[in-house]
Design a protein that fits this description.
The structure is a homodimer. Chain A is built from 13 helices and 7 strands. Chain A is α/β, with parallel strands linked by helices. Chains A and B meet through helix 3, helix 7, helix 8, helix 11 and helix 12 of A and helix 3, helix 7, helix 8, helix 11 and helix 12 of B.
């Protein structure tokens, strides 16, 4: 780890937002030394609570997230926001993201906002979001709000890693009941019916309640269903109170925390290892050879991969007859 | 590979759709022996052309895909469709997928349709889609249409693997220009303005054209921009003609094919390897120990992963001082 990293970490510890910003970028880019840097930074973390906010496009998640941030700041908390924009070439999400939102919250020093595109997250989207969350945590944030659209598996994984997950529904998208069907139920700690002033809001509210009535999962408490109209600042204080309450009593999250740590470890190892494996394969020229063979249809990818795999595994096993390490 | 696999492969070779269906499921599920099975099947493939169809939700991709399938069938081709539904808990996509579409195309023996959810693709979404495409190819399909929503990085990766990529835009979503901005331009071989009878279609058409005018990428030919109204069967014959023409002359795709093979090899290896690495780590108990240490904040995940990584790599290197294999 070179002097640059040390300098940045030192400045971040002293409260420099700019240093924080640069650290986030460098860690996201996997600049050389990033792991050592995170190793230094990690012990500073451990205080922040992660709140995941997910919902379909157009559910008003950004407005809700900003509103929650304001509300938390008014209670004296420091807040970081990680907005995971769909990498969609169609939404163009993160292009505008930061700036539009900055404008909304620019006057609040206590809020740090970071947009992440889902494309090109070098460490994998999920891990990158965790790294950034760890950084914000180490910087002294009390809450990190991670907002992501509930489309695409990576995007959903991101919120699963939170201490508490809000699922935002809106009337008129016909998604209330389907959301519950398709597996979001297990990750939701709170349901938010946003745009509650719209037609159909009450129906959606009741739909969600009756789905919860039918849920037989006893591992976690029944999620409350709250109504908000985020763009009119309605229902946000109640929502934040509910969040704070649940965080106090989130016993079921203890088990979840272990799973999260496991996943983080495995994810980090895999990502690092596979980068190395690929480099090796390229370096020894076998990869190019294999590509040519497949192109000429002399061989198939499946047998080539099996061969390479056998080779790698044998090497690892040979060195370790005990199988213990 | 047991007798079951051999039996299924034999029946598939004889043209059994049912056997094909079961093979697809078993390969998707990574049933033991799947790699050996694919190794047997792969040499049968190599004829089909892959067409990727992507666009924002609501762009009418399914209708367009079905229409293209009908058109191709009428020209005497055999067609497979892989519909990658967003795993969105909110869209509930693939729940209905197969059945609704089956109804539309049930009378066409020449079309095989398979929906894949993006969640829970054991081999990774991209690889799973390739496996299924290889199976359909081996079964004798001339064309495999892969349809996916352009949200989420995995979903976009899937179409990138195709021989030809159609990007579907519709008026009124304000996404025409943004699509081009955010990186879809490199992968689009044809732009389709669908729902061309709607207001704003002409504007969208011109927007796309002017974006293409500004594109300085000389590596590939300028993508044609076509108008369709898929639900009225308008413009589909012209679209299919254009697709067939482009496939004949897709010289730039040769280079791309190599990249695709490379990616497939690396993806397969990584996925298999990481499964093994995880199993090992769990088996030797070190993973649980590490989780506990992090939970108690005695250690950080980054240093643990670096340690484990060093260990794995040393083993691999030790066995191979030459670094050649």
């Amino acid at each position: 780890m070179n002097a640059d990293w040390i300098d940045l970490i030192e400045k971040m510890r002293q409260g420099s937002v700019r240093a924080l910003s640069r650290l986030v970028s460098r860690v996201e880019n996997r600049d050389p030394g990033w792991m050592e840097a995170m190793q230094q930074i990690y012990p500073l973390s451990g205080q922040a609570r992660l709140i995941g906010i997910t919902g379909s496009p157009g559910a008003g998640k950004s407005t809700l997230t900003n509103g929650m941030a304001r509300e938390l700041v008014s209670k004296g908390f420091k807040v970081g926001i990680i907005a995971v924009d769909p990498s969609s070439p169609f939404s163009g999400g993160s292009l505008l993201g930061d700036r539009v939102r900055m404008k909304d919250l620019w006057d609040l020093d206590e809020v740090f906002i970071r947009s992440m595109a889902t494309r090109g997250a070098l460490g994998g989207l999920n891990q990158s979001a965790r790294d950034v969350a760890n950084l914000l945590d180490a910087f002294g944030k009390d809450f990190v709000l991670i907002e992501t659209v509930g489309v695409g598996q990576d995007e959903v994984e991101v919120v699963r890693a939170a201490d508490l997950v809000l699922v935002v529904c809106v009337p008129g998208q016909g998604d209330g009941v389907q959301a519950l069907k398709a597996g979001i139920m297990e990750i939701a700690d709170i349901f938010v019916v946003n745009k509650a002033d719209r037609e159909g809001a009450e129906e959606l509210f009741l739909d969600i309640q009756s789905m919860l009535d039918m849920d037989s999962n006893q591992d976690k408490p029944r999620p409350p269903v709250l109504r908000t109209t985020a763009n009119q600042n309605q229902g946000l204080p109640e929502l934040v109170v509910s969040v704070l309450d649940l965080l106090k009593s989130s016993r079921h999250r203890q088990a979840w925390k272990k799973i999260r740590i496991r996943e983080e470890l495995i994810g980090l190892l895999e990502k690092q290892l596979t980068g190395w494996i690929k480099d090796q394969w390229e370096k020894d020229g076998d990869l190019e050879k294999a590509v040519r063979q497949i192109e000429r249809r002399e061989r198939d990818p499946y047998s080539i991969v099996r061969e390479r795999l056998d080779h790698l595994m044998q090497n690892m096993r040979k060195d370790d007859p005990s199988g213990k390490r």
